[in-house]
Structures are given as structure tokens and as C-alpha cells.
Design brief:
The chain is mainly α. Helices cover 65% and strands 0% of the residues. The chain has 4 helices and no strands. The radius of gyration is 27 Å and the shape is flat. Keywords: Membrane, NAD, Quinone, Transmembrane, Transmembrane helix, Transport. InterPro entries: NADH_UbQ/plastoQ_OxRdtase_su3, NDAH_ubi_oxred_su3_sf. It holds the Pfam family Oxidored_q4.
Length: 126
């Protein structure tokens, strides 16, 4: 004999699995809190970053070029995300020349941005 829960039955199953998952995670975090040793010392409570002991104030000025390289990475990552679907559509009949022109326009904008950064000398590391 099968019991039909109707339309909302599938949502009830998802909700039950979600509740079970939350209970497992909460139980694991609670067990960790109860079983772990807690012996705070000044060394354990000190700020630690990248193996360097903190010296002086916590504020330091960083150079803009690091952000420029980050932005360039994001631009190339987005460029790659758009190139892969373009390569699949390019082979479809009827889309060849249109997608080719659109991609060259897109790559032209990317090239103009890189050229601008190169002329402003933000692409030099030293």
C-alpha cells in the first residue's frame, strides 16, 4: 500500500532533509564545543597572520598595483567565462559570422582596457 502525499509531499521531504542536515551540523558543533579543551593563553589569543608576529599598529598602507592586478585577473576570468559558451555557439549553423563579430567587439573592449593600463604604466610590477 502506497501513501500519496500529494503536491506538497515532495516539499515536505526536502524540508525534512533540511531539518535533519541542520540538526546534524548543530549537533557536531555542540559536541565540538563540549569536548574541546579550553585553555586560553596570551600567545593563543594574540593576532596571527601568515607566520609574521604583529609589530606596531594594525594599519598599513598597500600599493594600488596589487588591486590593479586583481582587477585584471577578474577581467580575464570573466573573459574566459564568455569565451567558452561563444565557442559552442560559434559552430551552430547560422551563428558563425554574427558571433564572430560580437566576440571581436568584446575582445576589442578588453584590449582597450589593457592598452590603457599599459600606457598608464600600472602593469609594471617593479
Amino acid at each position: 500500500m502506497t501513501v500519496s502525499l500529494g503536491y506538497l509531499g515532495s516539499y515536505a521531504a526536502v524540508l525534512a532533509l533540511f531539518v535533519v542536515g541542520v540538526a546534524i551540523v548543530a549537533g557536531a558543533l555542540f559536541a565540538n564545543r563540549m569536548l574541546r579543551p579550553t585553555r586560553p593563553t596570551p600567545d593563543k589569543l594574540a593576532t596571527y597572520e601568515c607566520g609574521v608576529d604583529p609589530v606596531g599598529e594594525g594599519w598599513a598602507q598597500s600599493q594600488v598595483r596589487y588591486y590593479v592586478f586583481t582587477y585584471l585577473y577578474v577581467i580575464f576570468a570573466v573573459d574566459a567565462v564568455f569565451l567558452f559558451p561563444w565557442a559552442t555557439v560559434f559552430a551552430a549553423p547560422g551563428f558563425g559570422m554574427t558571433t564572430l563579430v560580437e566576440m571581436f567587439v568584446f575582445l576589442g573592449f578588453i584590449a582597450l582596457g589593457i592598452l590603457y593600463g599599459w600606457r598608464k604604466r600600472v602593469l609594471t610590477w617593479a
